[in-house]
Automatic annotation (TrEMBL):
Annotated InterPro entries: CdaR-like_regulators, CdaR_GGDEF, PucR_C-HTH_dom, PucR_C-HTH_sf, RsbRD_N_dom
Pfam families: GGDEF_2, HTH_30, RsbRD_N
Species whose genome carries this gene: Amycolatopsis magusensis
Lineage of the species this protein comes from: Bacteria, Bacillati, Actinomycetota, Actinomycetes, Pseudonocardiales
Family affiliation: Belongs to the CdaR family.
Protein name: PucR C-terminal helix-turn-helix domain-containing protein
Segments forming domain PucR C-terminal helix-turn-helix: 339-396
Top-level lineage group: Bacteria
Gene3D superfamilies reported for this sequence: PucR C-terminal helix-turn-helix domain
Domain RsbT co-antagonist protein RsbRD N-terminal: 29-163
Transmembrane segments: none
Xref: PANTHER family: CARBOHYDRATE DIACID REGULATOR (PTHR33744), PUCR FAMILY TRANSCRIPTIONAL REGULATOR (PTHR33744:SF7)
Domain CdaR GGDEF-like: 180-294
Length: 403
């Protein structure tokens, strides 16, 4: 290559001179390309496009022009300016990929506008320009990314703190301070039980890492589907979430959202749910947790449950003499899980053949076990008059099993 101190020439003129003289035109070209290629930039206010965004593009071109003139990479002061600019984009909520794309587009526009004028004798200079452009982007990209992420982390920390404070106040029943968050008319209060992801038990995989990844996917999908901030206190096993809504939530929609969240997390999710205005959140959280407990102890499949969905089981779980008497009816089955499983399965199907299929036994075996249950408890699962009592006894026994 030629003299490393000589100007880099394209089209018979030093490139840095061409860029300096045409700075305004190049700035306009880059702005037009950015808004054409990145739809999000077209949504910005015209004042911002002609102000901050144009200023950043111009500074980026000046900085690159200086690199071409001196063949030295940007100084720290220039990098600090780019970091601060990226921080403002983060504060405005512009995604990081869009911010970084704008810098790359700026270099591309300059490059594409000049390559058609390259003369054969200038090939070495063009190669040098290309190398400097790559080194420039290599240095600028992490600086811009760091400035953006530092601001996003600060915003995230502030928002997370505000959400935690608001959640704690709502759950404690103290007057909530929204901290910049809009307080909705009501919440869908969800008590969640999160099943394990397959990775949590896979050989060679750290279960804590797998659990955190599962939880992150759950939160991301929940935030994606719910427009307003969701207040939550969750571990990989479950917790509480307050979904902003009206005082009468759209439960079918929330059921669909929960199914989507479950798929995104790769884990089964069971939720007890209750609606509440902000002042009633503590009582709703208690009810949601109880509904979740009843749904799980009564063998319900994963999904979202309200009180009406488990009304009988909920009532049967209330302490009292009747609950104790009902539970005691199945005390003779204590220690015989095989008979208990047969009874549960038979009452669910109401017929011996599907019961035998699920239990992987012969129908005659089911008959034999049902006769044993009748002999031990005095209640016949095949007799209509005894079925309701046996169902109630099973529900009661799940709260305080005698076996």
């Amino acid at each position: 290559m030629g003299n490393k101190t000589a100007p880099l020439v394209v089209g018979g003129r030093p490139l840095h001179e061409r860029l300096t003289e045409g700075l305004a035109a190049y700035t306009g070209m880059v702005l037009a390309a950015v808004t054409a290629r990145v739809p999000a930039y077209r949504l910005l206010p015209a004042e911002e496009l002609s102000g901050d965004i144009t200023k950043v593009i111009e500074q980026n071109l000046r900085s690159f022009t200086a690199v071409l003139r001196t063949r030295a990479l940007p100084a720290q002061a220039e990098l600090d300016f780019l970091r601060e600019s990226a921080a403002r984009r983060a504060e405005e909520g512009i995604p990081i990929d869009i911010v970084l794309t704008a810098y790359h587009i700026g270099i591309q526009v300059v490059w594409e506008s000049l390559t058609g004028e390259v003369r054969p004798a200038e090939v070495d200079d063009v190669m040098a320009v290309n190398a400097l452009a790559l080194r420039y982007l290599e240095l600028v990209t992490p600086a811009v990314g760091a400035g953006y992420l530092d601001e996003r982390q600060a915003v995230f920390d502030d928002e997370r703190s505000a959400r935690h404070t608001l959640l704690s106040a709502l759950l404690d029943g103290t007057p909530p301070v929204a901290g910049g968050l809009r307080l909705p008319p009501g919440y869908a209060v969800l008590a969640l039980e999160i099943g394990a992801h397959a990775d949590e038990s896979a050989d060679g995989v750290d279960p804590m890492v797998a659990g955190r990844r599962k939880l992150r996917r759950l939160r991301v999908e929940l935030e994606r589907q719910i427009r307003d901030p969701v207040l939550s206190s969750l571990t990989p096993e479950g917790g509480i979430a307050l979904v902003p809504d009206t005082s009468t939530p759209d439960w079918p929609r929330l059921t669909r959202i929960l199914a989507d969240v479950s798929r995104a997390a790769g884990a089964e999710i069971t939720a007890g749910a209750a609606a509440a205005e902000p002042a009633d959140v503590p009582a709703a959280a208690t009810l949601a947790r109880e509904v979740l407990r009843v749904a799980r102890t009564s063998g319900r499949a994963p999904g979202l449950y309200q009180l009406d969905d488990v009304l009988l089981e909920y009532q049967m779980s209330r302490p009292g003499a009747a609950l104790d008497r009902l539970s005691a009816m199945l005390a003779p089955l204590s220690g015989n899980g095989e008979l208990v499983r047969t009874l549960e399965t038979y009452l669910r199907h109401g017929s011996r053949r599907p019961t035998a299929t699920e239990l992987h036994v012969h129908p005659n075996t089911v008959d034999y076990r049902l006769r044993r249950i009748t002999g031990l408890t005095g209640l016949d699962p095949t007799r209509v008059s005894d079925v309701a009592l046996l169902r109630a006894a099973l529900t009661a026994s799940r709260q305080s099993p005698p076996w």
